[in-house]
Every structure is written in C-alpha cells, then in structure tokens.
Design a protein that fits this description.
255 residues; alpha+beta; globular
Length: 255
C-alpha cells in the first residue's frame, strides 16, 4: 500500500512538472520549468554576491570599462527591465564568463585572450546573457528533478516486483540518462545560447561575423572532442550553427 501511494505521488508530481511549460526567446522552444522567476532571480542574486566575494574584481581599467559598456548595450538589446544588470571583470586566467539569473554577468580576464575586439567580447557576453534569458539554469534543475523522480519510481516498482534488479537498473539508468539525455540537453542549450546570442549582438550593433572569429580563437590549440561525451558542441558544429543563424538573420532582413 505504501509503495502504491509513492507511485501515485510521483506520477502526480511529474504531471504537475510537465504542465509547467515556457517558451525560450527567439528560438521559441518549449521548456519544462517549475521554479518561479522570483525564486530564480533571488538565487542569482545570492550566488552572484557569493561569487564576487571570492574573486578579485577589477575596476577602473580600460578592459573593465569595456565590459560595462558592451554589457549595457547587450542589456538594452535584451529588453528585460525586471533584470538588475551588473557587469564585472574578474581576475582569472580561465577562458570563461558566466551570467546568473537577473543579468549578473562575470567576465574572466582569461577570455580576453580570445576576444580580440569589442564585437568578439560581445559574442561571449551575449552568449552568457542568452543562457539567463532562456532560463537554462532553472531548466536544468527541473530536468534533474524529473530524472530523479523517474529513477525513484523505477526503484519503487522494482523493490515490489524484482528487487534483485535494483542495482543493475540504477547503474544503467545513471549512465543512460547522462549520455542519452543530460549531455545532449547541455549541447542543445549551448547551441541555443549561441543562436540567441547572435540575435542579441546584432541588436546591440555588433558585427555577427566576429562571432565566427571568436569561436575559432577559442578552439585554437585545443584537441577536437567527441560531442557524445561533452556538454558542449564541437567547435566545427558550433561555428556551422552560427553561420546558419547569421544567414537566417540576413535572409530575414533582406526579406
């Protein structure tokens, strides 16, 4: 009886989750998100404060001012008045940047090695802002909850019918969902952030062709990776997808 109640509860929860659908900007992809926008913004605010408290923020330099000016242009293009935008340059040799919910952007000094000009810096900043606009973080958390719920459901069913197969199921489920669901999902979000980012940088007044140069710079000296085992698309896939987006934008403008 207890197992039956658990199954009913899990199935009911999944139906509620699956009913919480949203649409991404520009790409219009349906999403499953059950975290409220208010919760997401609050999480972004607290995470940002914590990140900055542990970092060396650079102020009043040429590059730090560039980050803020470019960021303001992208923020205007994003048109999210509910976001409390912040743009900071942080001393870190990693070639990276990130944007937390609510428009909290951090750019590492290491990324400046690949971003040779303002348009290329706008490429990576627009990409990170796109993740926040599309609520990719909340979407990943929601997907993980569903994944855990399905695994729990499987364990409840097996414990009642074939408990000797529980360990085998958990091992197979873990590997299968990682390679077959979560990693492809990560690649989808990265490609989507690239696409949305191109739209944003164009609206902000930057040449989208510089995005191709930026990602080529990022791939220099790196070994090619097998997409199947990665959360990110390969450089060649990423560059081709960006070319397609640029062509789409040009076609729309010409039409």
């Amino acid at each position: 009886m207890k197992e039956l109640r658990n199954i009913v509860l899990i199935i009911s929860t999944l139906f509620i989750i699956l009913g919480c659908t949203h649409k991404t900007p520009y790409t219009n992809r349906s999403q499953m998100i059950f975290m409220s926008a208010q919760e997401e913004l609050a999480l972004g605010e607290s995470s940002y404060k914590q990140a900055l408290s542990q970092a060396k923020v650079i102020n009043n330099t040429y590059d730090s001012r560039r980050v803020k000016v470019i960021g303001e242009k992208i923020a205007k293009a994003a048109n999210r008045p509910d976001f409390k935008w912040e743009f900071n340059l942080v001393e870190n040799e990693a070639m990276n940047a990130f944007c937390l919910p609510g428009g909290k952007v951090v750019v590492y000094t290491g990324i400046l090695k690949a971003a040779k000009n303002d348009a290329q810096l706008a490429t990576v900043m627009s990409h990170e802002v796109a993740h926040a606009l599309a609520r990719h973080g909340a979407e990943r958390m929601s997907s993980a909850k569903v994944q855990q719920g399905i695994q729990l459901l499987g364990n409840v069913v097996l414990s009642a019918t074939a408990p000797e197969y529980t360990n085998t199921f958990n091992q197979a489920y873990g590997v299968g969902t990682q390679l077959g669901v979560m990693l492809p999902y990560g690649r989808l979000q990265e490609s989507e952030a690239d696409e949305i980012g191109i739209y944003l940088m164009v609206k902000a007044g930057y040449n989208p062709n510089e995005a191709l140069k930026f990602w080529k710079n990022m791939s220099e000296g790196k070994e090619s990776q097998n997409e199947f085992f990665s959360t990110h698309p390969s450089s060649s896939t990423r560059i081709q997808n960006i070319k397609n987006t640029i062509a789409k934008i040009k076609g729309t403008n010409n039409g």
